[in-house]
Design a protein that fits this description.
Keywords: Membrane, Mitochondrion, Transmembrane, Transmembrane helix. It comes from Orbilia brochopaga. This protein is an alpha+beta fold. Helices cover about 50% and strands about 15% of the residues. The longest helix is centred in the N-terminal third of the chain and has 30 residues, at about 50-80. The radius of gyration is 30 Å and the shape is globular.
């Protein structure tokens, strides 16, 4: 009927790009159907005439307001009276939101039973809406479980002798097949393949992959899987242009595959000996975009764990595990959920864990979060069991009753890998089982992401990472640390940092021991190391790396106390993470209110400590007469970008200041739009959003 209708251009309506545009276009189509199709009108007459009138009135309101919105947008671009047009635009937008809400309420409370219509069509739409996954849930889940593969295989019968194939895949246990079906229904492309005990959701054809690309362009990944996706997309675009059928294009694809997640095999390398691997893109931002992203990511990589000791002591752990390449992402979880801490694995150089172990944080932050933004797979069952067990524990200092202890033990026996799926058919919404659950005693193999051979850390690389940590720690101590030796011969180390920077302190505590306490009446934490064994190990690690003259004097007293020879530091170079630690402690990354410039600065009383920085990184040193100190600052765009790409990329910060480092390039893209201009209203809104995020860090 619509194809033959002269009243409407279907192509134009369905070309609307925005969510609201699509919604109102479809509403217009339904409106025409209800008003102009005699068969439908006749079917709905009589018994349903009142409801038909209500629907027609609603759709009439939608169309009139939709046209008003379109007119307002036109006025916004052409009228000299900007503020009147903007006010009108906002007014009509609010009307549309109201109508949208009314329709949602109406459709949820009035289920029309059209006897002569296609019931299956309406039922399918209803079911689809009920089971629709949130877009950011999909992105978060793929950040944990997805895989973007680039396959190149010899095929003598093909034009250039090789076949190029792109595959987007999520592989889970067959117990999780229903969750994969929901993902397939979300994308409406691809297929499920079951082999043995596992099921995969696969998308291979270029037409179908366009749907996948569109999704991740609109809802981008934030783990290092973003880099794999960018390489995948580069090959996708080359294949769309048929470049894979040409020698030059095939060489480009091989170059890209060489740095992709699975790398290139020795056989492929031998077939293309002259190919230089492409540059692997680095993830731009790991700022968590949406709470549903967290739900999806935890669905793939998280675990709710109950620990029972031999003395029947019960503790609870919420855990998320990742490869060390995504350590910044785990640290951002600390900030986003406002609880927990990060620890590198002592038994694996490849993995680290985000932990929440404080009972009050679990009760007041973790449980409410996942109640509001629920999990979708069988991990929901683990969460509900975990919640039951937590509620049985009234407090840290309240002893469990015998009955409650027995109940917690019973709950634990049925959780995670011990859970038996016996009701898949009876209650499919609650039967999507988790496939791979991180274990506290895991050897680090829980992370299923594939990395190229170049990404695997060798013993030599692990040693290099350890040296980077020692240099960073020395820089941190030079800024915020203090060695002390009492008259009685007791030595200690104290480091004070802001409460938002607790995870670097926990990393130090994990390695050397000590304790962390909140400083009363302030937003600061104090780390203190008194244990001689841990302190001696720390001194050996930073000896020869400390540069602050005041700290050298303090360290010398501690070394004398433990009969250790004090080592002088070598000249500072760019290939040293000391500066990262120094910025984490005494540095500032801010936007000047007067000039609008972005400035990275460090304040110190000793100019000697700042002079090498000026030589290495540029900038200037000024005297602060009011504070009797010196300030080293970098403010030129070129110098700051060189610092971001040439230094912080290799020696990243560990404090919350790293979030601002990751936003610097975005600042330079948007800062020119910080002054309101009618011609760049969208860019101005982006600047306002950016500035809000910046100010909250």
């Amino acid at each position: 009927y619509l194809k033959n209708s002269s009243l409407i251009n279907i192509t134009n309506l369905l070309s609307e790009r925005t969510i609201f545009g699509k919604f109102y276009s479809i509403s217009f189509i339904l409106y025409l159907l209800l008003l102009n199709n005699p068969q439908i009108t006749k079917t709905l007459s009589g018994k349903f005439s009142a409801k038909l009138a209500i629907i027609q009135n609603l759709f009439s309101s939608i169309i009139s307001n939709y046209l008003a919105l379109k007119f307002s947008k036109f006025s916004l671009n052409n009228s000299n009276n900007f503020f009147n047009s903007f006010k009108k635009y906002k007014m009509n937008t609010n009307k549309l939101h109201l109508i949208h809400t009314l329709i949602q309420i109406y459709t949820k409370t009035h289920s029309l039973s059209f006897s002569s219509l296609n019931k299956k069509l309406f039922y399918s739409i209803l079911q689809c809406n009920q089971n629709k996954l949130h877009p950011y849930y999909i992105t978060g889940f793929v950040d944990g479980e997805g895989c973007f593969s680039i396959n190149i295989r010899p095929r003598p019968n093909r034009g250039k002798g090789y076949a190029v194939e792109l595959v987007f895949k999520i592989t889970l246990s067959s117990k999780d097949k229903l969750l994969l079906e929901k993902i397939k229904n979300y994308f409406e492309v691809g297929r499920l393949i079951t082999q043995g005990s596992s099921t995969s959701y696969c998308v291979k054809s270029l037409n179908d992959l366009q749907v996948i690309v569109n999704h991740f362009d609109n809802y981008p990944l934030i783990s290092n899987k973003w880099s794999d996706y960018q390489l995948f997309k580069q090959v996708f675009e080359l294949m769309q242009q048929k470049e894979h059928l040409k020698s030059e294009g095939l060489n480009k694809i091989v170059s890209i595959k060489a740095v992709s997640n699975k790398g290139w095999s020795d056989k492929l390398r031998a077939l293309f000996p002259n190919i230089v691997p492409s540059l692997r893109p680095s993830v731009k931002s790991q700022i968590i975009p949406d709470p549903y992203w967290v739900s999806g990511f935890v669905e793939g990589e998280g675990s709710f764990y109950i620990k029972l000791s031999n003395k029947d002591l019960v503790s609870f752990r919420f855990l998320v595990t990742q490869h060390v390449r995504d350590v910044e992402l785990l640290k951002n979880l600390i900030i986003y959920l406002n609880c927990g801490y990060y620890l590198p694995r002592s038994n694996s150089v490849y993995h680290g864990d985000y932990f929440v172990t404080n009972l009050e944080d679990i009760k007041n932050k973790i449980l409410p979060f996942f109640e509001k933004f629920p999990l979708q797979g069988n991990k929901l069952k683990d969460f509900l069991d975990f919640k039951k067990a937590v509620e049985l524990k009234k407090g840290n200092r309240i002893r469990l009753t015998t009955e409650n202890l027995a109940n917690i033990k019973e709950i634990k026996l049925g959780m995670n890998q011990n859970r038996i799926s016996d009701d898949n058919e009876k209650n499919p919404l609650n039967s999507k089982l988790l496939t791979r659950r991180p274990s506290i005693k895991s050897n680090g193999s829980i992370n299923k992401r594939h990395y190229s051979s170049s990404a695997i850390i060798s013993n030599e690389q692990a040693k290099c990472e350890e040296i980077k940590f020692f240099e960073w720690l020395a820089g941190l101590i030079d800024g915020d640390g203090q060695f002390h030796t009492s008259k009685k011969g007791f030595s200690s180390l104290k480091i004070i940092m802001g409460i938002n920077d607790k995870y670097p302190l926990y990393e130090i505590k994990h390695k050397y021991g000590g304790n962390i306490k909140h400083i009363s009446g302030s937003n600061a934490l104090k780390y203190k190391l008194l244990n001689p064994k841990g302190l001696i190990n720390l001194i050996k690690d930073v000896n020869g790396l400390i540069r602050n003259p005041a700290r050298m004097l303090q360290l010398n007293r501690v070394c004398e106390n433990y009969n250790i020879n004090l080592l002088e530091p070598k000249a500072l170079t760019r290939n040293n993470s000391w500066f990262s630690g120094f910025i984490d402690s005494d540095g500032s990354i801010h936007i000047d209110k007067k000039s609008g410039q972005l400035i990275i600065s460090v304040t110190q009383k000793n100019k000697y400590l700042l002079e090498p920085l000026q030589i290495l990184y540029g900038g200037r040193i000024q005297i602060l007469t009011s504070k009797d100190a010196f300030i080293y600052s970098i403010y030129r765009k070129e110098e700051i970008l060189n610092l971001v790409d040439g230094y912080f990329k290799n020696f990243p910060l560990k404090s919350s200041k790293s979030l601002k480092i990751n936003m610097i390039k975005e600042f330079y893209l948007l800062s020119e739009y910080r002054n309101l201009n009618i011609n760049y209203i969208n860019e101005f809104n982006q600047w306002v959003t950016f500035k809000d995020k910046w100010d909250k860090i």
